[in-house]
Amino acid sequence: MRRTAIVLAGAVLLLTAACSSGQQTNENRSGQTGFVSGNGQMSVFAPNERKPAPAFGGETLDGKEWKFADHKGKVVVLNVWGSWCPPCRKEAPALIEAAKQVGPEVEFIGLNTRDLDKAPAKKFVQEFGVTFPSLFDPSGKQLLGFRGQISPTSIPSTLVIDKQGRVASRVIGEVTTQTLVGMVKDAG
């Protein structure tokens, strides 16, 4: 009887450890397979350490063409998001406010990924009043171009690209207005 109690207690401890480990993993996931939210960690790169952003572009949610090459000489803010992503919903007002604060001399572009249909993404844009365009990238092809600079599974992610077309800073996870405005000022 005593042996059974010890075995049972050990099994309970193992299950508890397994559940707490799984809970931690679930806190980093957002209901979509392969999605890992970041912790908001910011990386800033000195000018001599900055790597060029890849050539990216394509069709926006409203059917227009957008190319990064057309915006060289401007600071560009790229935000990777999905309508299915709770942290993206949480940070949307901060992005809109940052765009308003830095003004039209900075180009904001969204990169909508993994929405297989434009309808949920368009609803997101309308619901939050997003004022800047977003590229529609259902397959993640554009996102893969940033491999080595951001992980294709870390959504949301925000990059600030300097006037020379190099990645000046990034946030993996939710970004705040104050942080993003500071990143843009530092890149300029």
Automatic annotation (TrEMBL):
Presence of the UniProt keyword Signal in the record: yes
Secretion signal, residue range per the UniProt entry: 1-22
Superkingdom to which the source organism belongs: Bacteria
GO cellular component: cell envelope
Localisation: Cell envelope
GO molecular function, one term: oxidoreductase activity
Protein's UniProt keywords contain Cytoplasm: no
Alphabetical list of Pfam families matching this protein: AhpC-TSA
Keyword terms of this UniProt record: Cytochrome c-type biogenesis, Disulfide bond, Isomerase, Redox-active center, Signal, Signal-anchor, Transmembrane
Thioredoxin domain boundaries: 47-188
GO BP annotations, alphabetical order: cytochrome complex assembly
PANTHER family linked to this entry: THIOL:DISULFIDE INTERCHANGE PROTEIN DSBE (PTHR42852:SF6)
Full protein name: Thiol-disulfide isomerase/thioredoxin
Organism: Kribbella amoyensis
Lineage: Bacteria, Bacillati, Actinomycetota, Actinomycetes, Propionibacteriales
